[in-house]
């Protein structure tokens, strides 16, 4: 259960630390598909090249938080001090970083405030709108099946730790539930061969390796002698 007002975590702080109240008119856009098309002489219509590399391509999205802080022109010093703190918190980043909305604590955006907020001052409160420019996808880290963060409607329960011997290999599936291919981190101890789809990866010593995990269901096999731990980050709409 949350012990603070609804809001979001960004740049090392939760919005409630600044006394910030998120108003009810929060908005979140879905990313538009980026279509790459060409016309061919003497052929009707267009040729769609958007999926030539396998995954659909999307534009960026925005998340907008209309906010209020209860300081105002009745105490100008306090008001300007609190506004300065907010400006430093929101604008003091170099590129996109994690934005975690309290409504989706197991997912995050990669976001940046690019457009400076406009502050509307009143006697006892200040209203302003924060617009986060975000990468197209939400991201979900896949490490284990902790039940306190598991979403039974959206998530898929999968093992992330495997112990095998030459007599007890593992054969099964590994599902990337996102809509883009992910980087799969393999943490190997021992002498192992890992098969993902049609790709085989062999390791003869303890190491960490990153390979591609295509979207959807993948053949997943682990053989040899040792242990394997895996994790990846899914890109979801």
Structure description:
The protein has one helix at 76-91, and strands at 8-10, 13-14, 20-22, 27-28, 37-38, 47-48, 61-69, 97-101, 109-113, 120-121, 126-134, 138-142, 161-164, 170-176, 182-196, 199-203, 207-213, 216-236. The chain is mainly beta and 237 residues long. It is flat, with a radius of gyration of 23 Å. It contains one helix and 18 strands. Strands 1, 2, 3, 4, 7, 8, 9, 10 and 11 form a nine-stranded antiparallel beta sheet that branches. The chain has two domains: 8-136, Elongation Factor Tu (Ef-tu), domain 3 (Beta Barrel); 141-236, Jelly Rolls, CATH 2.60.120.
Outline: flat
N/C terminus separation: 25 Å
Number of domains: 2
Q: What percentage of residues falls in helices of 4 or more residues?
A: under 10%
Q: CATH topology of the largest domain, what is it called?
A: Elongation Factor Tu (Ef-tu), domain 3
Summed up, the helix count is 1
- Overall pLDDT score: 90
CATH architectural category of the largest domain: Beta Barrel
* Poorly predicted regions: none
Written as H for each helix and E for each strand, in order along the chain, the element string is EEEEEEEHEEEEEEEEEEE
CATH domain class of the largest domain: Mainly Beta
Strand coverage percent: over 45%
Q: Based on helices, strands and strand pairing, what is the structural class? A: mainly beta
For the biggest sheet, the summary is: 9 strands, antiparallel
Radius of gyration: 23 Å
β-strand number: 18
Domain Siphovirus-type tail component RIFT-related: 20-134
InterPro entries: Siphovirus-type_tail_N
Protein name: Siphovirus-type tail component RIFT-related domain-containing protein
Pfam families: Sipho_tail
